[in-house]
Write a structure and sequence with these properties.
single chain
Amino acid sequence: MRGLVGVATALTIVGGINWGLVGAFDYNLVDAIFGEGSTGSKVVYIAVGVSALIALANFSYLRRNRVD
């Protein structure tokens, strides 16, 4: 489980950086690498979205089970 959360965290960071580039410079790194609307781009976007859900679930789990 720890490995899955690590991968999800890394992909979420990559997605955040990509959105930062889009917002600041109107440059989409994922589309630049894989091609706009390509299957590769769609796979990356889906992976980042699923990773964000995993990160959210992990955050919720950690909040519920924190030690005070």
